[in-house]
Amino acid sequence: MAFNRIAYAYYDPIWDRIQQPIALLVRTAIEPLDYLAHMKGHLHCPSCYEPLTRVPNDPAVAVMANGREALFRHFPDEDAPYCRLRSSQMSGKKYNSEEEARQAVEDQDLVIISGFMQERPENQPRADFDGEQEPLETQFESEDGPEVAVPVSRHDGETFKLPSKVTSVQSLCTNFRHNYHREIHIVVEDKVLRYVLDVDLQDAAEIDEVTDEPKFYFGEIIRIKRFDSTSHVFLRHPHLPGNVDFRISANNNDLDARGIIAEHSLRRILIFYGVIAEVGAGYWSPTKKWGEIALLPRQYEDFLKANYQKKEQ
């Protein structure tokens, strides 16, 4: 790869990966430039949870002799489990048994989505905006869905029946660092599509064609045009010949409840899931439902921008 894929490590000075379950790992995210000497030996990969080392080991050194910034790296291990952050392969992780795959779902390493919420859940309180705090509404953003046949077996053609969630993009954004490397399988009509945000999340500013396959996109909100029942939310896009722009459309009630209004969301990052169609001289993703749009919490904006820039280099 052209860049270091391990953007951060989990630091936990107590967790023992041999004797303790993954659920007990305290997932304190540490970036390479935040590394301190006492963290040595207590850093874990956010994808496979194997131990990591910081290169260079001296926390005072931020840039190596070759000009590269400090980074995290796996220890050499021929018997190490599959990890997409260790390997350059883009193929997904495969499981030996349905029980192993179910455990991955329980550990939140594997995300199975049978659909995105189409309407705002009932009885959902929402706190007013208070400075930099974000009302994330997490306890209402997911509900149990049906079991789904997912092709994550090591044996070609075999599928495992795994529990799914009917959820929202907001739920994925709430713990964005953790979900950035997770495998996400989404049921779309009669297919199961696989995504990993650190590869598949695309900048709306780069949209230059229509597509019928739904994908994850992000963009900076620059303008909101409000109508009686719906609004158009414009995202930053190059002004090409013909005044090309990009927008999404959504119900005003959903946008208001999500906090996607001009007073609070200009210059914020919107993340959405959907197809791309033409509108006028530009493009749009029309009729976004409750679960298909979200504001990225502010604390993750720099993380997304920095990692997306590295991916483009």
Descriptive report:
The protein has about 325 residues and is an alpha+beta fold. The chain folds into three domains: about 70 residues, no CATH class; about 100 residues, no CATH class; about 110 residues, Nucleic acid-binding proteins (OB fold (Dihydrolipoamide Acetyltransferase, E2P)). The chain contains seven helices and 17 strands. The strands form four sheets. It has a five-stranded mixed beta sheet with strand order 7-8-6-9-10. The protein has a five-stranded mixed β-barrel with strand order 12-13-14-16-15. Strand 9 and strand 10 form a beta hairpin. It is globular and about 60 Å long. About 5% of the residues have low confidence.
Instruction: Please name the CATH architecture of the largest domain.
Output: Beta Barrel
**Radius of gyration over C-alpha positions, nearest whole angstrom:** 21 Å
How large a portion of the residues is in β-strands, by DSSP E?
25-35%
**Class by SSE composition:** alpha+beta
End-to-end Cα distance, whole Å, is: 10 Å
Helix content: 10-25%
The side-by-side strand order for the widest beta sheet comes to 7-8-6-9-10
Going by CATH, the homologous superfamily of the largest domain would be: Nucleic acid-binding proteins
Counting DSSP H or I runs of 4 or more residues, the number of helices is: 7
**CATH hierarchy, class of the largest domain:** Mainly Beta
List low-pLDDT spans: 127-137
SSE string: EEEEEHEEEHHEEHEEEEHHEEEH
